Amino acid sequence: MNIDSELEVWREQWQSDTVVPVELQGDLRYKVERQSRLMRISLIVDIAVTVTIGGGITAWAIRSPQPEMVLLAVATWIFIAVAWTFSLAVNRGKWAPSAQDTAAFIDLSVRRCQSRLATVWFAAGMFVIQTVFVLSWVYLNSPARRQPLLTWLFFGSIPIDLVWLSTLAFFGFLIWARRKKRAELTRLYELRKKLCGQL
Question: Full-prediction pTM beyond 0.85?
Answer without folding.
Answer: no
